[in-house]
């Protein structure tokens, strides 16, 4: 039997899984360390590694704060990219809610996380959750090139 072309596989099936974790607020510090370790091991150099970890942390923090207190992270290497998908069971949202310009210039201390994640990513997407995973809210994918 011939293996399918990776480009034809659903995104969840292609690539090499590096990390998969369910998380809550209590586990966010550990999650940051694990993502940093995986990114370093895969060759993502500074300052991109720090930017990637910050983006992942902001998205995971949003899942905890705004989408029911928990989420699911899957970090994969796909070719020469690191892709992180964070899903939650919240109400969901679309990418249109993320402002084009830096939010918070009016003194508000919040609202910058998704904007920042989109800014530092090579690719960024927001989609509806997948009921089969138990995470029916949003799925945010942030991707950076390793080279």
Q: How does this structure look, described?
A:
By secondary structure, this protein is an alpha+beta fold. Helices cover 28% and strands 30% of the residues. It has 3 helices and 5 strands, in the order βααββαββ. The protein has helices spanning 28-41, 48-66, 113-120; strands spanning 16-24, 70-78, 81-87, 123-130, 135-145. It starts with 15 loop residues before the first strand and ends with a strand. The model is unreliable at 1-12 (pLDDT under 50).
Count every beta strand, where a strand is a DSSP E run of 2 or more residues. Answer: 5
Sequence of secondary-structure elements: EHHEEHEE
Strand content: 25-35%
Structural class: alpha+beta
So how many helices?
Answer: 3
Rg (C-alpha, Å):
15 Å
Stretches with pLDDT under 50, minimum 5 residues: 1-12
Tell me the overall shape.
globular
Arithmetic mean of pLDDT = 85
Spatial order of strands in the largest sheet:
1-2-3-5-4
Largest sheet, in brief, is: 5 strands, antiparallel
State the distance separating the first and last CA atoms: 34 Å
Q: Report helical residue fraction.
A: 25-40%
